[in-house]
Amino acid sequence: MVRWFVGWLVCQRGFLHRADGYSTIELTNYPTNQPSNDQTLHMYILVTNDDGVTAPGLLALKRALQTLGNVIVVAPDRNWTASGHTKTMHKPLRVDQTTLRDGSPAYTTDGAPSDCVALVMLGLLPEKPALVVSGINPGSNLAHDLTYSGTVAAAMEGAINNVPSMAISVDGKNRDQIDFAPTAEFAVRLAQRMLTNGLPQDTFLNVNVPEIPLEQMRGVRITRLGKRIYRDALVERQDPTGKSYYWIGGEPPSGVIEEEGTDVWAVAHHFVSITPVHMDLTSHALIAPLKAWEDEIQLSSPASVVSRTDH
Ligand code: MN
């Protein structure tokens, strides 16, 4: 405990500037939950989220995963829910050290969830993590939600960098009163398996857990993405000068719960849903039918064909 505390004190001034302009963190000073005087950063799990570094779901996840080993938290300094897959290129990114509510150290950035993962992969920490876990998001990320979700985007960034990654969400209805414990417990079981088995390239796992005690869950299902039904509504109001502004409001989304085997079906029927997601967004089924369009929309000049065969 004392060694850990000294380490944490030292890491208050832990940033070093590298000759190439990047900042990295002194090997001995990285803030993990484990006391260590080692010169190398051993296996660690990177935890991030899209709700911000103060979110209770993040803390529950971090505390559960640290039973497996070192956990390092790098999370946004604010809520980025529904921010999608962001790469911040138009402004600098700041990284600060902070303390979670349990007193443990963490890093926080003014970037998006995917930026947090990218920062680590590009050298903020001296080694890549063994696993990226993003969550626990208060609210499910199902079906088309994957295209909006910042939680999922962080896992995508992990997959792009060839690190086994998962996004994990709990299907809570009342976001202020969610019990994250069962989901955190399940995250540990799955993380253990991922650390042992890894994942194929360009894939990650999207996990959704019903908000009920573990013993009441009906089991785990490997699923495919289902269909969301969005109930968004455009709300138009006027600012004090009389100019209109808009909110995207409406009811929370529902989904097609009858389609067995989907993530939407699984969670609605009290199963834990694990969807393996591939970064290849190609519609393979549409390639053959679209071939019929090729002649019709072909470029008129054959030059492009000639230049390609000339290479
Ligand atoms: Mn969120």
Give the SSE layout.
Blueprint: H1 2-10, E1 15-17, E2 23-25, E3 44-48, H2 56-65, E4 70-76, E5 95-99, E6 105-109, H3 113-124, E7 131-138, H4 150-160, E8 165-171, H5 181-197, E9 203-210, E10 219-222, E11 228-238, E12 244-255, H6 263-268, E13 271-278, H7 284-291, H8 303-310
Parallel strand pairs: 3-4, 3-7, 4-6, 7-8, 8-9, 10-13
Antiparallel strand pairs: 1-2, 5-6, 9-13, 11-12
Helix pairs in contact: 2-5, 3-4
The chain binds manganese (II) ion.
The site of manganese (II) ion (MN) has 5 residues, from loops.
Description of the structure:
The chain has 8 helices and 13 strands. The chain has helices at residues 2-10, 56-65, 113-124, 150-160, 181-197, 263-268, 284-291, 303-310, and strands at 15-17, 23-25, 44-48, 70-76, 95-99, 105-109, 131-138, 165-171, 203-210, 219-222, 228-238, 244-255, 271-278. By secondary structure, it is an alpha/beta fold. Mean pLDDT is 88; it is low at 1-29 and 34-39. The protein has a single domain (2-227, 255-284), classed as Stationary-phase Survival Protein Sure Homolog, Chain: A (3-Layer(aba) Sandwich), CATH 3.40.1210. The strands form 3 sheets. The chain has a 9-stranded mixed sheet with strand order 5-6-4-3-7-8-9-13-10, sandwiched between helices. It has a two-stranded antiparallel ribbon with strand order 1-2. The structure holds manganese (II) ion (MN).
Using brief descriptors, characterize the structure shown.
311 residues, alpha/beta, Stationary-phase Survival Protein Sure Homolog, Chain: A, 9-stranded mixed β-sheet, two-stranded antiparallel ribbon, 8 helices, 26% helix, disordered N terminus, binds manganese (II) ion
